[in-house]
Every structure is written in C-alpha cells, then in structure tokens.
C-alpha cells in the first residue's frame, strides 16, 4: 500500500492536483476490492460508508489511477471500462461469461511460453499480453 500511495501522490503533485481524503479513500477501496470492477460498481460499494463521494469523483479518480499506472483498464465486450491492479496485469488471462458477465482469471505457464514463441517467430519483443476467452459459465450452460 505504501509504495502505491506514494506513486499516486507523486503523480498528483506532478499534475498540480491535490491529494484529497476522497482520492485516498477511493485508492484504498480499489486496492481492497475484487478485481474487474467498473467505476460505477466501485462507487456503489463506497456509497454506504462514504455517501459524500460522488460518482464523478470515483470516475475521475479511477482514470487518474490508470494514467499513473496503478490501475489497468480492461474491456470485456460489454462497453464497461473495468479496472484491476496493474501489478496483476501481465500474467493472467480471462474467461468471460457472455450471459451473466462472470469473469474468471487463470494462469498457465504453457500459454505464456507459447505466446513468447509466437512473438519471437515474428521477431516481436513482447511487452503486454492479453487473452480473453468468451463463452458460457457452468451455471449458464444449465439454464
Ligand atoms: Zn454465466
Ligand atoms: Zn484480471
């Protein structure tokens, strides 16, 4: 938490923005929440305890967190921008249920190696990798 908060404070200072209590609360809530929340979902989670924090503030703060590299933006085909900590960005992949929207993360060394091989076969240096598989989760298959 310490290093992340420092990173955020430095970014705000560099852009002449203030470190407000609200921004701190949103950062903490983001880091403690389950992954893949949209700004709206985070706002709804915060609302009970912090009714003074508006949706626009959450929305803008999440954009700032993405700009300074703490949060990674994700799009899973439903037009929502979702956020997850960028430390977890690289080495996990996503299964997305097209019916209920459930998102499952998985890791697989073999896929990682395969992607590396594909990249180097095309003389690419791999910076990021992203793999999203769309389908139906077990629950939705039985409906
Ligand atoms: Zn489902
Ligand atoms: Zn994820």
Automatic annotation (TrEMBL):
Assembly and oligomerization: Homodimer.
Co-factor remark: Binds 1 zinc ion per subunit.
GO biological process assignments: negative regulation of DNA-templated transcription; negative regulation of siderophore biosynthetic process
Domain of life from the UniProt record: Bacteria
Family as reported in the entry's similarity comment: Belongs to the Fur family.
SUPFAM superfamilies membership: Winged helix' DNA-binding domain
Positions annotated to bind Zn(2+): 97, 100, 137, 140
InterPro entries cross-referenced by the UniProt entry: FUR, Fur_C, WH-like_DNA-bd_sf, WH_DNA-bd_sf
Cofactor section: Zn(2+); Mn(2+); Fe(2+)
Protein keywords: Cytoplasm, DNA-binding, Iron, Metal-binding, Repressor, Transcription, Transcription regulation, Zinc
GO terms for MF: DNA-binding transcription factor activity; transcription cis-regulatory region binding; zinc ion binding
A Pfam family hit: FUR
Compartments where located: Cytoplasm
Binding locations of Fe cation: 91, 112
Protein name listed in UniProt: Ferric uptake regulation protein
Gene Ontology CC, one term: cytosol
Organism: Desulfuromonas thiophila
